[in-house]
Design a protein that fits this description.
Elements: E1 2-6, E2 12-17, H1 31-34, E3 38-44, H2 57-70, E4 78-82, H3 84-95, E5 103-106, H4 115-134, H5 139-146, H6 151-154, H7 163-174, H8 183-186, E6 189-194, H9 203-206, E7 213-217, H10 224-228, H11 230-237
Parallel strand pairs: 2-3, 2-4, 4-5, 5-6, 6-7
Antiparallel strand pairs: 1-3
Length: 239
């Protein structure tokens, strides 16, 4: 994992977690809007840069913990995670509820699929990766077929992702537990989905968190609210 930071370390801390096949650069357009008020911590996951492999969600979370400890950070104002990053944000929060003030789980595929379904996704994504490695000029088109129109922001990172990483990434996307959370912890969570986002199909599974906030945005797809209405997103969701 590689981690970059922006802003004054004395300010409240926000951890930003990017979608699969992107990097910390996913947040470039929002850094100026946030870094004057918050200290931003932005990782790029293992496997999402050259000569690295993604092993597990737990491994990435250990890297985050090590960074926070080394920098004497014992509390985060918020974690905001998108897609795979939303899964990591949710999982990390569930194990660190006392040191996180708020978690925004955006477009996260919080599913727990049987192996046969995961294998279907693996085969589909594997074909996609192999195609774009062979024909990088078609990267955006190929990625859009699999990832809800995310190809534009994934095209530069996806060719670096190994097939070994892909297997492990699928576990982090489609093998997510939904543990019991008390009311106070539920109140810290905001779930965000666009009505055109296929990840919204996990909503029945997480509706058990009745004290959490659920935001459904009409006519937007994967991570669409954050990318298309950024100022409104920041003003409305970060408390």
């Amino acid at each position: 994992m590689k981690i970059v930071t922006y802003g004054n370390k004395e300010n409240e801390k926000i951890l930003l977690l990017h979608p699969m096949f992107t990097s910390a650069n996913f947040f470039n357009f929002v850094i100026d809007r946030l870094s004057d008020k918050y200290y931003l911590i932005i990782p790029t996951y293992s496997g999402h840069y050259k000569n690295s492999n993604y092993m597990s969600m737990e491994d990435e979370e250990r890297n985050i913990d090590e960074f926070l400890k080394e920098n004497n950070i014992d509390r985060l104002k918020a974690i905001i995670g998108f897609s795979l990053g939303g899964n990591i944000a949710f999982h990390y929060f569930c194990h660190n509820q006392d040191k996180i003030g708020q978690v925004i789980v955006d477009s996260a595929p919080i599913f727990k699929f049987p192996n046969i379904i995961k294998k279907c996704f693996y085969n589909r994504y594997k074909r996609c990766l192999l195609n774009i490695k062979e024909h990088p000029e078609n990267a955006v088109k190929e990625l859009n077929k699999c990832f809800n129109g995310m190809g534009e922001v994934q095209q530069y990172v996806a060719p670096m992702v190994t097939i070994e990483s892909l297997k492990n990434l699928l576990e982090s996307c489609y093998n997510i537990e939904t543990p019991k959370l008390d009311i106070n912890s539920q109140r810290k969570i905001t779930f965000v989905y666009g009505t055109e986002d296929i990840a919204r199909l996990c909503l029945p599974r997480i509706k058990k968190y009745k004290s959490s906030e659920f935001i459904k945005v009409d006519s937007l797809g994967h991570c669409g609210y954050f990318r298309k209405n950024t100022d409104q997103y920041i003003k409305k969701l970060i408390r």
